[in-house]
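Recap from last week: sequence in, structure out.
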Amino acid sequence: HTSIIVHKDEFFYGSGGISSCAPGGTLLGPPDSVVDLGNTEVTEEIFLEYLSSLGESMFRGESYHLFEHNCNTFSNEVAQFLTGRKIPSYITDLPAEILATPFGQALRPLLDSIQIQPPGGNTFSRHNGQS
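Predicted structure tokens:
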């Protein structure tokens, strides 16, 4: 699970679409590690409009795919918008590395059917930032 913390909230993507919570507020708890990607000049208002646009286009819940369009894809996209920096490749490359193993290939049919939505967040909505 990866997410972006910006303007005092944590934003992430799963099979339910874009969601938010207080930092570390999903049932997954606090992160195992945090990568500081820097600061942003993007205002909260512009950021929320951007998220709304993403939620209506690229990051709808039904577009989620565990290996090809996931929380890493979302975090990378948002990080580039906010800071011009990508998240580290050791994170974005992990799904492909798993699928390159015989074990990953054997499990792929099962894993392709999994829809992940970390519990504890609020689905993002355009009206007030959260719902």
